[in-house]
């Protein structure tokens, strides 16, 4: 779409920066804005030779602490360019606010498909399983990366990931809270009191899901994983469960719950957990542990949605549908608490 008024910047200043910092760039520059990108405004750039790039920048306005870390995004993408994890090529990072008004980076434009609907209606039934396998294969590759060898040993703190995430997102939730939600208050108490004992550390994306991947135009192959803003060192099971929330959330949340998976040619949650575990060389998680991670992730989703919703109220959200995020805060929290209640019932 055309660049939103609130996200406009000096395009000539950007063209001058690219001429000096992006090899092969040819003026003039054309700028468009992607409709997606809940957190950081994202733009498609086209140069005079027809080459395309993507620009990700911090949004203007008052921001939550530690949010919108485009410098971290650039660092991890540049490091992963040296591995078999599919990532766009990282070109340049700028923290000079005189160029576009906020820090930004430029990366490769991957010319492929973004698959928004998990039922894959535009993919033939016989090709859908391969798409699912490709995204779980990409996750396993990421979790097998030697992050220290890539110079990312200081990219986060090893261990206690879930505890720190609950604290971090909880603080951001409270900073953007717009109403009291009983199930959220209960989760704030229950989750820290029931933390898992496992402490494995891997490099995690932080928002690993279908629509944060660019697929090849015709093959079941991931060209690039995008939106690395909240990547860090973390718990592989927490990230796996985040991807698998798809099977626990209903159709109107764009989930798979309520769909006939066999008719659609789609795998079950258990099948994909087993597939990932084999690829990553890990044992499948115990049921109680797995349910904890599900509840934790739904809590985290509520916190993230609340932040997006709050930004829509103050006008700094980049996504035109950001205001809709507020509608899912309470339902996600309620679903998380129902999982906790079921766990408690099963243990009696």
TrEMBL record:
Coiled coil: none annotated. Residues 30-252 form the Aminoglycoside phosphotransferase domain. Pfam families: APH. InterPro entries: ACAD10-like, ACAD10_11_N, Aminoglycoside_PTrfase. PANTHER family: AMINOGLYCOSIDE PHOSPHOTRANSFERASE DOMAIN-CONTAINING PROTEIN, HYDROLASE, PUTATIVE (AFU_ORTHOLOGUE AFUA_1G12880)-RELATED. This is Phosphotransferase. It comes from Reyranella humidisoli.
